[in-house]
Amino acid sequence: xxxxxxxxxxxxxxxxxxxxxxxxxxxxxxxxxxxxxxxxxxxxxxxxxxxxxxxxxxxxxxxxxxxxxxxxxxxxxxxxxxxxxxxxxxxxxxxxxxxxxxxxxxxxxxxxxxxxxxxxxxxxxxxxxxxxxxxxxxxxxxxxxxxxxxxxxxxxxxxxxxxxxxxxxxxxxxxxxxxxxxxxxxxxxxxxxxxxxxxxxxxxxxxxxxxxxxxxxxxxxxxxxxxxxxxxxxxxxxxxxxxxxxxxxxxxxxxxxxxxxxxxxxxxxxxxxxxxxxxxxxxxxxxxxxxxxxxxxxxxxxxxxxxxxxxxxxxxxxxxxxxxxxxxxxxxxxxxxxxxxxxxxxxxxxxxxxxxxxxxxxxxxxxxxxxxxxxxxxxxxxxxxxxxxxxxxxxxxxxxxxxxxxxxxxxxxxxxxxxxxxxxxxxxxxxxxxxxxxxxxxxxxxxxxxxxxxxxxxxxxxxxxxxxxxxxxxxxxxxxxxxxxxxxxxxxxxxxxxxxxxxxxxxxxxxxxxxxxxxxxxxxxxxxxxxxxxxxxxxxxxxxxxxxxxxxxxxxxxxxxxxxxxxxxxxxxxxxxxxxxxxxxxxxxxxxxxxxxxxxxxxxxxxxxxxxxxxxxxxxx
Amino acid sequence: xxxxxxxxxxxxxxxxxxxxxxxxxxxxxxxxxxxxxxxxxxxxxxxxxxxxxxxxxxxxxxxxxxxxxxxxxxxxxxxxxxxxxxxxxxxxxxxxxxxxxxxxxxxxxx
Lengths: 621, 110
Ligand code: HEM
Ligand SMILES: [Cu+2]
Description:
- The structure holds 2 protein chains of 2 kinds.
- By secondary structure, chain A is an all-alpha fold.
- Chain A has a single domain (about 5-555, about 600-615), classed as Up-down Bundle (Cytochrome C Oxidase, Chain A).
- Chain A has helices spanning about 5, 10-20, 25-50, 65-95, 105-125, 145, 150-180, 190-225, 235-270, 280-290, 305-320, 320-335, 345-365, 370-375, 380-410, 415-440, 460-490, 525-535, 555-570, 580-600, 610-615; strands at about 545-550, 605.
- The longest helix of chain A is centred in the N-terminal third of the chain and has 35 residues, at about 65-95.
- The radius of gyration of chain A is 24 Å and the shape is globular.
- Chain A starts with a helix and ends in a 7-residue tail after the last helix.
- The longest helix of chain B is centred in the N-terminal third of the chain and has 47 residues, at about 1-50.
- The interface between A and B is medium-sized, with 18 and 15 residues.
- The complex binds protoporphyrin IX containing FE and copper (II) ion.
- Protoporphyrin IX containing FE binds next to helix 9, helix 12, helix 13, helix 14 and helix 15 of chain A.
């Protein structure tokens, strides 16, 4: 039992601890809080959209507000909810799984979180200052150039800041996986979730720069009189679409690969079998990532690229279905003949397989370029990507959160409530989105404020909205469960699920140095090997010694706030040059704190051997 | 005894590394000289005012070779323990190359 975890501290010192933390486990909790907050916000926006569409010619919200709602729903869910929640899972699980004491750059890790949060806040300030962005989450030019007010300036600046944070998170995880694996943890012994974290980070590293460039060009067009996207001045509107989707398609794989990783942990654990076809899983992950870069133009079939370009991208797109299929079969074979336990993470995994497969199938349909002329910009596309993003990523996030909840908070969430939550959410999800396929085929366009009466669209839209309320009810139950668990459930052991990988070899929550002695890894599923061939405990790979840990610091937060202030100044300097003062102040804070960090030595601290000896043997017991 | 063993090992090791460093130094000097020559060649053909179709490809090729020298001889990418960075850099270059090629093709020639 770690002494630090049981110490009672006042609210102020806990808050300060979290504001300054560089510990990957606490940063995971911060990402969880931030991501979940935005998940609720994006969910509320979605509910308003669905209520507007509950009946034909509805007047629940105005057309302008509707545009802002759909734009902010998409942007929030992708950048501020799904990605941070995945980063929460990566932060809590990956360093433990590879047997590391922290990530490679703890400071950068904290900076990544605060940049994301400040970026998200900047984006949402737009609601209170005259209107949120309203050109769709894809912000296609020229609409986004001519959109009035400052909504799209908030979009470009807010996403830019949040994007920096994500980029840093990605680089950090890459270095962590490459350099910080425990003795014996070779790449091909790494749990699949760590693998998908690694590959998703590669995608972040290579895909986000395209977004960064696109957003800069948009910012310059809107705020500094440039004309990159203005054809009358020699610009090209389609370039934005290319840049956005060169980023955007890898982005959807950044969202789905970690979810695949979660299921590749959950399914073996609750089938009591090792993952079927481990190396083909790794190979499929790498292949998906690579192909993911070569298909962006399938979002632009109707732009007029010509039949040759369309055909090439159509074939490349369909090729992705092959490695994805390999994965689906591997999961099924993992369960085949296993001893299944139907815990709530496993239910999400089981719900995921058919749901995601439907999404993949509609994906291949959309990938048929000629047919896409019919589907494009209809509710069919909406149905497709919600099947893959909700049925894949969101199910994966919930499975992972429930699975690793004890590692974050030391308690297992109430299983009974989670079963209810799963069924509400699962049924609600299919109610909401299944019929949207048919709405799309019947010709209902996406992003329209109202639909007309007497076109056969009424009933399905009504059912769809009812489904959304089911999902909302499920989510509320989940939040209730969190509070209930915190108050009523008993403390969990280090290994509540009978796990196979290293994170279950330490207590729940782990001590802040994770491993008292780095573990010696003898193969895939290292803890399981010790359970079946050893004494059930990891053997140490090093003698007990002092542990070097980084110091807490407030600088990442201050830097991020500085950048946020600078961003606000940049947005408003077009109205009044006095705002440059604000921007300059922001940049001074930003670069000033960077300079402090660079010039002041901060060598961290040591936890001494004698203190470690007092704290038990550091195993999961 | 253990200590003695250790120290003979150590001197052998030192010798080995000294030899290796010398070798490396030689390579660095040679590549440095070659890079200067390459630069001179590049300037030379621009000043000689030959056809663009000739100048541009040559300069690009020279630049690529120089980047390779940088990576391998000055940033030690050929040394042990650099396999991951090397793999990443090359797959990055490969993906970027394909992307840019496809993009320029379909936007400006398609
Ligand atoms: C078998 C795999 C997949 C294929 C073949 C595929 C294919 C496509 C195609 C062709 C489109 C464009 C449709 C149109 O706009 O007319 C599309 C849209 C979309 N897909 Fe997929 N997809 C696949 C998997 C995924 C996954 C795994 C995700 C995310 C986790 C995803 C997320 C999206 C999103 C967000 C859009 C809509 C973007 C927008 O226009 O707002 N897709 N997909
Ligand atoms: Cu795509």
